């Protein structure tokens, strides 16, 4: 039910974005609705949907009384201002296009799969909408069995092709993050909870990298990118706080403001020799240590391979 409503809300938003400043009349909207969903569209239903869209997405559908046409003011700016809304709209659009074009575009479109816990997205969103607590069994990596958790679901976050639940843990008495693919047997409870005043999931993760809550205050981290890597990072920033500090013929220096953790160190390493961390020194040394450990593994493997090849050629060794 929640998924169906969201699809309809997003479809309506799409229609108004496509209509632009000219807007769309209720008669035109009714005709499009009937063609899409196969049912009549009453004015009362439309007004209910308008209210829900403003409440859920913060988008107001206004009416020009002089022409009786409905529109979204500055609709073209929605994708720039509301990342979450843009993601929902883009996902819905792509899914619709894929489902409508399976035959004539077969073998021509490839999308990355996000397998982690999709089956729990709908019940979690429903629980969030009603401010209902959830109960589930959570299995940590390396744990022999799953443990029961009672959580107030504050929000949902997607990072690196995984979905995460952010909520208040009754057991830990603190805000925690749970990977949805580690959740088992989730139930939405009748127990209600009160959302913290002013809660904003983006603000909560403002100084974090990836899916981890910040372990400490944010810090300015400088790193240098070489050659084409600088262009790549300029187009696809490592973090929302990324700024370009300086540039010369060989490299560009960027800064980000985050609380450093292991996932950030691994991100730096994933760019190989294309990135050099400049400061602070402890972060630079942590990256250096991890790089040395990686080099040691490959050096050991290479030495072992040479030894085995030599032994094969000379069994007396």
How confident overall, as mean pLDDT? 83
Q: Largest beta sheet: what is the strand line-up? A: 7-6-5-4-8
Overall geometric form: globular
**Annotation field: number of helices:** 10
Task: Write down the Rg.
Answer: 25 Å
The proportion of residues in beta strands is 25-35%
How many DSSP-defined strands?
12
Describe this structure in words.
The chain has 317 residues and is α+β, with helices and mostly antiparallel strands. The protein is built from ten helices and twelve strands. The protein is globular.
Task: Give a quick rundown of the structure.
The chain has 317 residues and is an alpha+beta fold.
Q: What are the salient characteristics of this protein?
A:
globular; 25% strand; 4-stranded antiparallel beta sheet; alpha+beta; 317 residues
Break the fold down into its secondary structure elements and pairings.
Layout (H helix, E strand, L loop, with lengths): L1 H18 L4 E2 H12 L5 H15 L3 E4 L4 E4 L5 H4 L1 H18 L20 H10 L1 E7 L8 E13 L2 E8 L4 E6 L3 E10 L8 H4 L14 E8 L1 H8 L7 E5 L3 E8 L3 H9 L4 E5 L1 H33 L4
Antiparallel strand pairs: 1-3, 2-3, 4-5, 4-8, 5-6, 6-7, 9-11, 9-12, 10-11
């Amino acid at each position: 039910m929640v998924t169906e409503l969201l699809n309809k809300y997003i479809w309506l938003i799409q229609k108004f974005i496509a209509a632009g400043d000219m807007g769309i009349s209720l008669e035109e909207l009714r005709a499009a609705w009937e063609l899409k969903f196969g049912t009549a569209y009453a004015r009362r239903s439309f007004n209910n949907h308008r209210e829900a869209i403003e409440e859920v997405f913060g988008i107001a559908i206004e009416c020009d009384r002089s022409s009786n046409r409905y529109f979204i003011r500055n609709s073209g700016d929605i994708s720039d201002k509301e990342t979450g809304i843009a993601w929902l709209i883009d996902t819905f659009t792509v899914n619709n296009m894929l489902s409508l074009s399976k035959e004539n575009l077969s073998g021509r479109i490839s999308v990355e799969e996000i397998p982690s816990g999709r089956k729990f997205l709908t019940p979690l969103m429903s629980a969030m909408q009603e401010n209902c607590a959830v109960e589930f069994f959570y299995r940590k990596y390396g744990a022999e069995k799953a443990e029961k958790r009672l959580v107030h679901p504050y929000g949902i976050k997607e990072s690196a092709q995984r979905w995460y639940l952010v909520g208040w843990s009754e057991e830990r008495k603190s805000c925690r993050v749970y990977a949805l693919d580690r959740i088992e047997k989730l139930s939405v409870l009748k127990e209600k909870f009160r959302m913290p005043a002013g809660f904003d999931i983006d603000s909560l993760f403002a100084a974090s990298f990836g899916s981890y809550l910040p372990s400490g205050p944010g810090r300015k981290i400088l790193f240098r990118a070489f050659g084409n890597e600088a262009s790549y990072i300029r187009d696809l920033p490592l973090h929302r706080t990324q700024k370009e500090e300086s540039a010369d013929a060989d490299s560009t220096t960027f800064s980000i403001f985050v609380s450093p953790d292991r996932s950030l160190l691994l991100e730096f390493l994933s760019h190989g020799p294309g990135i050099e961390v400049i400061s602070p020194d402890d972060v630079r040394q942590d990256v250096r240590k991890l790089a040395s450990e990686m080099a040691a593994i490959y050096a050991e493997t290479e030495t072992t391979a040479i030894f085995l090849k030599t032994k094969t050629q000379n069994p007396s060794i």
